[in-house]
């Protein structure tokens, strides 16, 4: 039989150690309970790039929640797979593939992480790719898809279950932040072209900047306290549907329900 061509396109492959630490820590904290319940604690690092650092780091961080977690790094470029295989170890392997997520034995992963993969695609492709990836998840699985800068200071991702998108998380190194809307350049492909007047994500970032400005007196207590005050204001009565708590806000994060930020229908 002829081999099936992997679905997708080769990415730039930019990889730096610790680039995805904010996303990984969020996954371990927020999805840890589900991972511990999983009969098959398998995670996929989809499109890990020119070097395998992100797959290695994902394994280490997931094992804080589930010591027997496994990670398979999947890359569409066979040369990158060959270069990564010397780094394989117990619980970590690498495979050639794309959005079809090829796994032996029909395994369905508890987690698929796709970071900085869809940025080069057209917005119209996002729904199709999300649908394909969600279909590969275990029943209680999670897909995390998003974008960050080269050293992981600013990151925005969407969390999706088998049923569809659930939340959007904004995460940043607070010491580098001038205003929350600085994160707009890292919006995932589903949202980045929607940061215009009339779209929910634009309204959210506008309110975020306004609340940040109002919280300026708290800057004397540090950027963390200003961020916490800002998010508390956003989540106040009649505000945005923030789903997390101050324990996550202290990490420079805020998570909002997808429905509140989803693109307006046209």
TrEMBL record:
Domain of life from the UniProt record: Bacteria
InterPro entries found in the cross-reference section: SAM-dependent_MTases_sf (IPR029063)
Protein name: Class I SAM-dependent methyltransferase
Lineage: Bacteria, Bacillati, Actinomycetota, Actinomycetes, Kitasatosporales
């Amino acid at each position: 039989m002829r081999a099936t061509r992997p679905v997708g396109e080769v990415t730039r492959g930019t990889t730096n150690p610790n680039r995805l630490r904010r996303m990984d820590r969020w996954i371990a904290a927020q999805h840890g309970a589900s991972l511990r319940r999983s009969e098959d604690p398998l995670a996929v690092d989809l499109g890990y790039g020119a070097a395998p650092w992100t797959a290695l780091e994902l394994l280490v961080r997931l094992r804080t929640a589930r010591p027997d977690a496994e990670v398979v790094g999947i890359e569409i470029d066979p040369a990158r797979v060959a270069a990564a295989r010397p780094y394989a170890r117990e619980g970590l392997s690498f495979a050639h593939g794309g959005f079809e997520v090829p796994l032996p034995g029909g395994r369905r992963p508890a987690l698929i992480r796709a970071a900085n993969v869809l940025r080069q695609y057209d917005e119209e492709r996002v729904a199709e790719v999300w649908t394909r990836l969600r279909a590969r998840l275990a029943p209680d699985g999670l897909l995390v898809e998003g974008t960050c800068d080269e050293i992981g200071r600013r990151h925005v991702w969407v969390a999706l279950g088998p049923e569809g998108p659930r939340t959007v998380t904004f995460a940043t190194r607070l010491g580098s932040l001038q205003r929350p809307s600085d994160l707009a350049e890292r919006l995932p492909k589903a949202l980045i072209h929607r940061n215009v007047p009339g779209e929910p994500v634009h309204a959210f970032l506008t309110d975020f900047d306004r609340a940040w400005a109002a919280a300026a007196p708290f800057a004397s207590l540090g950027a963390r306290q200003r961020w916490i005050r800002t998010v508390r204001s956003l989540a106040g009565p009649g505000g945005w549907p923030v789903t997390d708590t101050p324990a996550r806000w202290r990490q420079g994060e805020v998570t909002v329900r997808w429905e509140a930020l989803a693109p307006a229908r046209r």
